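Appendix B. Chain record.
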Amino acid sequence: MNLTSRRGFLQAVTGLSVTSFSILNAQARTTDIRIEDISYELEEHQYRAPYKFGGVPVDRATIINVKCRVRTASGKTANGFGSMPLGNVWAFPSRSMPYDITLNAMKVLAARINKITANYREFGHPLDINTALEPAYLQAAIEVTKELKLDAPIPKLCTIVTASAFDAAIHDAFGKVHVRNVYQTYGPNLMAKDLSHYLTPDFKGEYLNRYVMTKPRPRVFMYHSVGGADAVLESELTNRLNDGLPNTLAEWIKYNNLTHIKIKLQGDELKWDIERTVNIDRIANETRPNIDWKYCVDFNERCPNIGYLLEYLRKVKELTPKGFARIQYIEQPTARDLKANRQNVMHEANKLRPIVVDESLVDLESLLLAREMGYTGIALKACKGQSQAMLMAAAGQKYKMFLCVQDLTCPGASLLHSVSIAAHVPGVSGVEHNSRQYMPAANKPWEKKFPGIFKVTDGAFDTRKLNGVGLGVV
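C-alpha cells predicted for this chain:
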C-alpha cells in the first residue's frame, strides 16, 4: 500500500485527517513499532466433557493463533505470538443461528481483521495501533454481517474477541523487540501518550506503569469452574470418564487442593440455583473442612431482573450463612445490553457483594454506564484484548472497583496470557482455569515448560515464570 492510499485507508476507518497522521509519523519515536507481517492459523479441539454456561452446553473450541513481525523506527525487528479461543457461544450468542453459523462469522471476520492489520503500517505503541485499528475492525464486522446475511449484527464483544489474538501478538512483539516483559513497556519511556489519551482527563499525566506491576506476584489463586452440567454430587454423575482425571467436584477438590470455586448458575430456575449453591458449599466443606473457601457466582446474564438476584442471595444466606459469606463476588447477573435494560440497576445488590460487569464491558463508555447502574467490579479478560485489559485495569483502580480475571476456557498460550494479567494487576487474587477440565489435551504441550500453571497442586498458580520477554509465553 503506498503512502497516499494508506492515508486514505486510515482516514476512512478512524476519522483522522491526513495531516493528523503526517504529524504522528513525523513524531514517531525510535522505539515505536510498525507491523511488517501478520498471519494466523486455526486449530480445533473437542472438549473432554460438555461445559454448560448460560444455558448452553459447549463441546468444542476453535483456537486462533496469530504470528506477527514488527520493526521499530530505528530498524530493530522481532516476532510476536498471540492465541485465543474464538468462543462464539459466549461472544456471539444467538437463538436463531446455530453454532456453525456464528463460528463461521468469526472466522470470516478474522480474515478481514488480518488483512486490515497487515495493511496498517504506521508507527506507534501497541495501544496506539489497537486504538487506530478498532474502528476498522468494527466496520469489517458490519460488512461481514451484511455479506453473510446474518440474522443479527456481529456484536462489538464478538469483534474484540476475534481481534484479541492479533492485539496480543503485537504487544508480545513490542516487548520482544525491546527485550523486556510487556508489563515493563507501559511507562513514559516507551509510551508517547499518557492515559488521558485513551481514557478520560482524570488520567492526565498518568501511564499504565502506575497501575500494573513490572514483576508478577509469585502466586495467584485458581478458580475451579462448576458448569451447569458438571457433577457436584456422586448421584449426578451419569457417565464416568475413565481418563485419569476427576469427574465430581469432590474429586477435583482433592486433585488440585482447591480453595476457590466458580459457580455457574441458570438464572431462570431459582430453586435449582439455590440448591446448587448450597450443595457446592456443603461438598466443599465436607471435602476440605478447614479451608477459607471463596466462591464466585456467575449467572451469565440470565437473571430476568434484579429481584431474582436479591431473592437468590436472601435464600442462600438463610440456608447457609457461612456459604453466603464465602461469595467473593457476583458476575454479570442480568442482560448484557445495559442501555436497553436500564431498570436492572445493582445498587441494592452491591451492598451485599461486589457486582462485576463482564459481557457488557466492551469499552470505556460501557464501563461508565455500568458504574452508573451500580456495578462495582470489572472482569478483566485477555479475550477482549491486552490493550483493553490494561486500560480497564487502570480505570478500575482509579475508580476503586473490585477487579478479577476470567478466562474463556483458555488453553495453552491463552491461559498463560490470562494468568499473567492476574499476576501483574494489583488487587486481582484469582483467575479461573477451565481448560484443564474440558480441554486437557490442548494443555499437554505446555506442561513441561510451565508446570506451575498447568499442574496445580495447592489450589494456586505458581506465576514466577511469567516474567519472560514479551507476553512471556513463547
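Further analysis of this model is presented in Appendix C.
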